[in-house]
Please model this.
Amino acid sequence: MKGKRCRMALGLGLMLAGLLAWAAFVRNPVVPAWSWNFLFGREGEGDHLVGRVYTIRDESGQVVSQVSRRVTVGDEIFAADGRHYRVVKVRGEEAVARFLGMDEDLLAYRDFYRQLAIPAAKAPAPAQPVGIYHTHSDESYVPSDGSESIPFKGGIYRVGERMVGKLTEKGLRVEYDRTPHDPHDDNAYYRSRRTAVRLMQANPLALFDVHRDGVVDPGYYRRIVSQQNVAQTRLVVGRENPRMQANLDFAKRLMSYANSVHNPIVKEIFLAAGNYNQDLMPTALLIEAGTHTNSREEAERGIALLADAVPAVLGITGPAPPGAPKPITDRTAKTPGSYKALAWLLALTLLGGGAFLLVSAGSWERARQRLGRFFGQELGGLPVLRRLRMKGKLEVREKATVPGRGDPAENREARERLEEIRRD
Model:
């Protein structure tokens, strides 16, 4: 009997711990990273491995995208023109994606942002900074750096510096963390999480993790944009984090506005398996600036054009015109995924505790009986519950008492006890 009560207490303790974690998330959403890949030890697997290229085609055989990261069923692509695809089959390094139609959010943002222009005046510097860091601090560009990888001091730092310079020029304050996170392995994102959490202490407007891709063909990213030879950028959103919808909304806004003023500087949005530390805030994104076979200078010019769009999307370039969507940093704006994130945490808490109780009991009926006995025995001794229970019993006894019947002394004693409870 004692062992059963211990198991019941442990199951309820798990649920209580989960509820406390859920409440803590509401107040401060800086929580440990999670993903299904984490459970199976695959977080970051195959991310930016030079020469390992997945080709994604639609069901008619046309190339939709190429990426040097592990592609899984369920990944999604949002093309610059609004086309939306979902990966339905992966065989080796070939994948098939189904066309889901035109994305309504992208079309709406594109139509709106086409009516705007980049403000000529520098925006007043906001109190909150923008955070920038590099999970893969070795990533480099072969034509300029001589290698695709330079541990601890890759050419990607020069690309990050160019983004910092452009954002500063636009009036933003930037917190640029140059902490290296080598080696380039499956644990890089766990090491860079410490950096991202440190940047979160400054209450940033957004967090950008800047990378380069590993696609072999330099022409895949090379374009002439705004009369400049550039390497295009790709925005990557991790679909295994509770803030995925908010991150995706931010990416859609950024791609739409950036392409409205420097078309097509953003190639696409890739919704990939993984977390990428984007659960830390709704405006966290991974940026890929070209690939290792592009020159670093092309990547620097490309990310500078992307940075042009950041202030407007973050809502710090002055009042928005009538009809404009609220800036994503506006606390009253709709933030997709926030309530879903809280519901997800609560559901996992109840599911985990309930599963433990079911396994320990052996059946649904026994689990229900144990739960009832536990609440009756362990919580029934609480003064409030004891008083309510006593009051209920006396009220039943009072109703059952009929004048002229029963023991008068017993009836009188019951009424006196009832009056005492009511006075309390």
